[in-house]
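Hello, quick one for you while I still have it in my head. A protein chain has come my way and I'm curious about its shape. I'm sending you its amino acid sequence along with the backbone structure tokens. I'd be grateful if you could look everything over and explain what you see. Here's the protein in full, and shout if anything looks odd to you:
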Amino acid sequence: MSELLKKLADKLNICTIFTYGCGTIKTTVVSDEQLRFFIESFGYDAKNDDEIQRSLDRIEKKRWQQAMDAIYVVTVDDKAFDIVLSEEEAKGNVTVSYALEGKSDFKPLDVTFCEEEKRNAYVKLKGNIGTTLEPNYYDVVVKTVKGEYKTVLAVAPTQCYALDKKGKEKLFGFAVQLYSLKSRRNWGVGDFTDLENMVDLMADSGGDIIGLNPLNVLQHDFPETASPYASSSRLFLNPIYIDVEKVPFYEEGDKDGQAIWFAKEKENIDYTAVYNAKIRALRNIYARVKANDCSDYAKEFDAFKAADTGELHRLAVFQAISEERVKLKGKASKQWEESLSSALSNGVEKFAAEHLYEVDFFKFLQFEADRQLRLVEKKIKERNLVIGLYRDLPVGVSKDSAEFWGDKYLYMQGSGAGAPPDNYFPTGQKWQLGAFNPFELKERCYKPFIRILRANMRYAGAVRIDHVMGLSRLYVIPDRGEEGTYICYNEKDMLNILALESHLNKCVVVGECIGNVAGGFKEMLTSRNIYSLGVLWVERNDENGTLKAPHEYEAKYFASVGTHDMPPLKAWWYGTEIGIMKDLGLFTEEEARGGYGWREHERRLLLSALDNERVWPEDRYRHSDYLYGDGYPEGIEEAVHSYMAKTNSEVFMLQPEDIFQSMKVQNLPGTDIDKYPNWRSKLPVDIEDMASSEAYHRNIGAVKKWR
């Protein structure tokens, strides 16, 4: 690559070289073709040296062509911004005033200016703010002899919101895939009433937290696209979690008992049957709500719609268009498609007006989902759980989504987020998720990011930031390719915004950083009071795979045995996922043999670690190596849960799949439904039977011995 091309890529924060780990550390030099693709996707020319030089000149001039950036993200103890003025303005009187964002009561802001740089007839001044400002967003106006300039000042705390353990030393709770919950009363998918019942179960057991999969809305017309990490909008909830029988104006005749019975009898979740049964029932209910528009419930719905700032309407219109497209079954004209291809297309307003009933129905779904999740929060407060819900924010959004349709230029064009090969996913991952354009995001004052944070912190005491490394750099792959490179974001701004929203929403932040993590990144998270995941299978001491002892775990961990991308404990023991990968052709015979060999080695390491910590239950102490035909060790779940409960980590998350010996792998990364039924496994036990089961009591007892 030429030095000029490298310089341009560096200016645009496109990595030209990066390392990744897959057994050994490897280095990749990004091709010129890849660099040009990403440079051009940011709107700059790079076909030859002349174009590259013009692009560099354009970047150099850009900051001098506007007085201030759209936003300045600072901290409470380091408040400064810069402003470009003509020499004449810089010599004259410069005053600054501020007000809380959206308010009109502007007050003088104490700012000391000093000259930073000159360019032709312009001067860049640095403004150091002397006024004490509480963490929040402020509108700032700078007035000079020639005019006035406006910006937004985001003042962040230096750390994220601190976990208040309310006098408890260590906490524990469940990590639950909500859809997987079985109960005798639900319709074939776990719902918000099941979640309420889990709150009671958790409180009765002495726990304080329930971790959840992302609850975001998925594709309305294709319910089988079930990955909660590829949503249609990260701003809104999945209506499949609505307990239909709990909705006002529900009638028993709304329930399709036969369809629900068949769905519940199936081994895996039948999303199409369950979702369609719920939507049919909710349409009936909605008709009654419209007919009783003077009821308190209908008035509450009207207030919900009135509070919308536009995002709800966009989602509802998108869903109505998608539904109409399916009804037409490919008969829609090219002109019709083009007129509705994005939120700004010329036919959207007309379509919305002509389909107002349908659009309002989709708004109703969000209203009721929000109402029922709010009831869960109410239950959490009644039962006095320390943290309550621990929600999950995905790293990206489906490119066939309301978010992308509503504002596609906010996202990288012609590419999507993924991950390079690492020790856990040696073939890499091509998620094809929409990724924010970092330059456009800042021009929008980070508002899209802020809205998503607020939506997922709502009703939550903690939030997990999926692939938190994406706030610093994100691996992006062209749609027509298998290899990509890292695109860097303004790490300081992104993390400060995260800290500010954490503070404003009183929400603890956990960063998922498993995979290709840059050196020092985890330490930086800790310094900002961002918790990390401490996963048993990941926390190793050496290349031999020796497991870290409990006393070696960090305090700022949300510890767990595994994750949704890893097999449950019993399936791990038998190497179930290795066999699945081999059967699907994702592993060769040789790779599978190597995998089984390593798993046998890992089992020995686990048994040794459990022995060293003396955590085996007294009545189920291990009596062999369980490696050659002795089966699954009795009591190993209790031993492992005791081991993890002993860790220094402030929070330990159990998985019901481990307690009840599930053999189902919830998600097999790198596969879709054509190969493996991801996100469809049900728990082996109904919620109603959990508290009375011996397995539950023994495992909770093992945890409470140490927490």
User: Anything to note?
Assistant: The longest helix spans residues 356-383. The chain has a mean pLDDT of 95. DSSP finds 24 helices and 25 strands in the chain.
